[in-house]
Structures are given as structure tokens and as C-alpha cells.
Design brief:
Length: 270
């Protein structure tokens, strides 16, 4: 009976991993295809990886995507951390729960509703100030910060709840100002949550298509939008190669982050 109980959970986990990572494995294998086919493996070749770095349109879209992801994740992390500290410091529980519910709306809303509503808002504001070509990098940056904020707040809040509430007060009793007490005592204890929120905001911004599609302009196109426009004709394996490079980069970044966090936790316990 014990063996059967172990087999079922392991089988369940194996099926989940298969459904999650089988498409990625197929994409990685076909990125080394020697032919133009995106379904039949004809032979091993690295030509599509070389082709990626010759395509100026794709590289420019990748640059736009990375710039947008970096700026939106950094700004969302700063605002989200301050918002989480403010929520944690609220004395009235009903007010805290109400603000937290309102904050979580962008996360719970369907992306198409979020995208259309933001587009209408930006166009309305553009008409008020007399601008017709309002959609572009600024609107995409605001939209990405908006849907990244709840994830940062939800990453930082649990870390704040784990901290002894009297630590900051003790630091102030020893001569620290409230600001210096926050940076010297509170911030180091919630740094893992801030990094997690930053990484989540970065990957969400890197991946977003639906909201970006509605708030983007012709002058600023991200990689998901460019790839979507390619699907109307034919997607070559160079997109598989580029996606493989992004997947491997994000995977390495997550591994390095987890290792550094584990080492930091061990040093604190020691």
C-alpha cells in the first residue's frame, strides 16, 4: 500500500512536468533543425541561431522588449514595495483588506479587459491634450507597471508579516531615524521578497502580449507583437532559436537567484 501511495503522486508530478515542458522541449529540438520546416526534423544545424543575429527587425523588437521589461519591473518593484509597507502599516483591517482587494483587480481581471480599458483611457487622455498618436513606449510602460504591481505587493507582504514588528522600534530607540531604521533593519529582511517580485515583474513584462497589443503604437513594437505578426505568414525556426535563448537565459537567472537566496538564508541561520 505504501508503494502505491508513492507511485500515484510521482505519476501525477511526472504528467504535470510533461504537459508543461514537452512543448518547450519540442521547440528547443526544432531550433536546431537544418531545414525551414517547423514540424519535421531534417538534421542538426546552428544556422537559425546565426540567422537570429542577422535579423534587424527581430533584434530591435527584442531590444524594445528588454528595455520595457527592465524599466517597468524596476519602477513596479519600487512602487510595490512602498505600497506593501503602507498596507502592512495600516491599523484598520477593513481598510487594509479593501485596498488590497482593489490592488489585486489588475491581476484578477482578464487581460483583454485590462488592455481595452487602458487603451480607451490613453486615447481619451490623448484627445484631451490634443494628441492623436499617444500610443507608444510611455503607454506600454504605464500598462506594464499597472499589471506588475499586484505581483510585487503579494511577494513583499508575506516577508513583512514574518518580521518582528518591534525591530524597527528598537532601531529607533538606539538612535536610528524612521527612514534609516527601514533601510538598515526592515529592507534586508524583506530583500528576498523584493527580488522575487522584481523577477516576476520582469518575466511577466517580457512575456506579455494581449495588453501590449492594445496599448502599443507603430513606433514601438515588442517581440511578442512582432512574432504574432509573423504567424500570419510563416514562422521560421529562427524564432524557435530566439525563444530557446530567452528560455535558457531566464532559467539560468532563476537558478542563480535561488542559489544566492539559499546561501543568504544559510548565512543568516549560522
Amino acid at each position: 500500500m505504501t508503494g502505491r501511495k508513492k507511485v500515484l503522486p510521482n505519476l501525477y508530478i511526472a504528467l504535470i512536468m510533461l504537459f508543461l515542458y514537452a512543448p518547450m522541449l519540442v521547440m528547443i529540438v526544432l531550433s536546431f533543425n537544418s531545414s525551414v520546416s517547423t514540424s519535421v526534423m531534417s538534421g542538426f544545424s546552428l544556422k537559425w541561431y546565426a540567422e537570429v543575429f542577422r535579423d534587424r527587425t527581430t533584434l530591435h523588437a527584442l531590444y524594445n522588449t528588454l528595455v520595457l521589461a527592465v524599466f517597468s519591473s524596476l519602477i513596479a518593484t519600487v512602487i510595490g514595495t512602498v505600497a506593501a509597507v503602507g498596507l502592512y502599516g495600516m491599523k484598520k483591517k477593513w481598510l487594509r483588506s479593501m485596498v488590497l482587494t482593489v490592488t489585486n483587480i489588475p491581476m484578477m481581471n482578464p487581460e483583454i479587459v485590462m488592455g481595452i480599458s487602458l487603451m480607451l483611457l490613453f486615447v481619451f487622455v490623448g484627445n484631451l491634450v490634443g494628441k492623436t498618436d499617444v500610443l507608444g513606449f510611455p503607454t506600454m510602460l504605464i500598462a506594464h507597471i499597472t499589471f506588475n504591481l499586484p505581483y510585487v505587493i503579494l511577494s513583499v507582504l508575506p516577508k513583512l508579516r514574518k518580521i518582528d514588528p518591534h525591530l524597527a522600534e528598537a532601531a529607533q530607540d538606539l538612535g536610528c531615524t524612521p527612514v534609516s531604521a527601514f533601510f538598515k533593519v526592515v529592507l534586508p529582511n524583506i530583500s528576498s521578497g523584493i527580488i522575487t517580485g522584481l523577477m516576476m515583474a520582469f518575466t511577466l513584462s517580457l512575456d506579455d502580449f494581449v495588453i501590449s497589443y492594445f496599448v502599443s503604437g507603430p513606433q514601438f513594437q515588442t517581440l511578442p507583437i512582432v512574432i504574432f505578426s509573423m504567424t500570419k505568414k510563416h514562422v521560421k525556426p529562427d524564432m524557435y532559436a530566439l525563444s530557446t535563448l530567452i528560455f535558457v537565459s531566464v532559467l539560468l537567472l532563476l537558478v542563480i537567484m535561488n542559489i544566492s537566496q539559499d546561501r543568504a538564508e544559510k548565512k543568516r541561520r549560522a
